Amino acid sequence: MGALPEGYQVIKKEGDRRVVELSVDLRRFGEEKLRCALEKIGWPEPLSTQQELVDKETELRDVAAAFAYLLTLQLSQQQSQVNAGTMDLWAIDCVLEPLLLRFRYHFERLESATNRLAKPEWYLTYVQEQISQHTRFLATALTSELHRRREEVHCWDAQILLLRGLVKAVCHKLEQDLPTLLANPLLLCHTLDEILLFEQTIDDDVGYGSWASTDRCVYPRCVDVFTSNNEVLFAWTSTDVEYAHRVLTSSIDIKSAGNNEFDLGVFRSKQESIWQLEKRSYGQPEGSGQDLVPQAALQFIALLDFLSQRFTLMETDEHRYLYVMQVHLPLLRRFGQLCDARGRQLLNSLTKKNNEMQILGTWRELFVVTNALQHVAHTLATWEQSSFFLELSKKVARSETTRAQVLRMHVAYSRQVLSRAAKAASTAVLTSEEAAAVRHALAGPGAMIGPTAAFSAAYSVGSKTMKSLFRRAEIEGNDVDAQAVEPHDEGQSTQDAPVDSAAPVVFTTKHNKTTLVNDRGEGKDDGEDDPETLLFSHTIFERQITELRSLTTTLLEKAKDTLVRAAERDVDAYRSR
Asked: Which of 22, 58, 62, 486 has its CA 20 to 30 A from that of 325?
């Protein structure tokens, strides 16, 4: 078929132009008609009672008709468009206009008294109130019209569509406030708490979560603002890490007893009593295992559970997996250190000369510490079998794209840790008295002491971080050197071991079998997978469970050895009489 003559082309273009203008005029007419109908019912004032709906039945019928006209007009014009089903509806936008106008007036103007960074709950409460107050009106006048065209729209629930528009407004405000929030960790933490609570509320009350899980692009969440880029995501995880370690330290950490005699019968502080059972637990018959778990373990599990609830709403599996690596794993490592410190403290007290009641009390508390370790390990094993953690592990393990994204984000996080470590090390060295003396004595070479120390510290942290990422064992020398293991100094206490949030684990075990990996990532066993596969093929808490159980066994073995030595000492003393 030949091309149209030039004259017909001009006529066609003119016809297209007039159709577009007519479409614009029809849309403007439909929107004005709907606005007038809404004004007659006093929108956005709520119609909260059934009697109010009855009194304005005629006006509501006009609103429904105007809404249906504008909806039909849009759908008829956009039938040929590929993404027509997910486009914003003009009719819903008209309904949203006065609500968004109030939102911007109260919460986005700089001079507004209600626009306060410290009060994110104010605008979140506004959104919740609008949704709850207009439920009857939306169901009566709008949802019925959407339901008639349910095959052509992505959602026929007017309440969900209205909430979607308000959530977008909240996201826009959060994006504006984000630079200030990142500079103020306390404000960031409070805002995150309120946002997560808001997300949970709209999921429970309205069911927004089911729509968001279906298509996150069409139904966004406010929490997506905090996972929009690595800088914001790392600020979130860093805030949660600091909070978690602060809670753990304040509630469980044990202060050194110094050279004073260890007296179990007196609770010297809250940290002492946290390792005690309730008095009613002693003397309980068998089968009351829950009563044998100390408050230290129960509080720690509650903390872990709280943190687990915070990352479930993240958009991608990469974000959720990275959160566990950066928050949960270092926290579990620190809990093991505290339990180890408490166990060593108790074992040390057994070597001193105490009366019978003190010795019995020490043994009793030592078993309580091992109960705490076993309880946490058992809880983690149960969590691993839950659908959420099983799905997360499998999705990350099976997707090369997801694994690559996790690795990239973790490397970026490592760089951030390196930067902070270098700055901290440089500051520490440059402010020390020795460095000051060297700087005064050596005008030239002394200036390199600070940067050199900073680089060394940063390299050390980075090495630990990357080893924890790939779960590799550092190997130096030949195979003989690799098999040579220095004995552990039992007298060294891990009580004051520093918390390394950047290096949660060094993981090379699989099914209790250690696999050595060289610098090129080649395993000694040709049948084993490469380190990246090993990283993502393990269940999330497998190594932490193994470490906690191993620590339990170690404490019990040392306790047994202490008991045997004490018995041998008593026998020798008896024979020497």
From this structure: 486
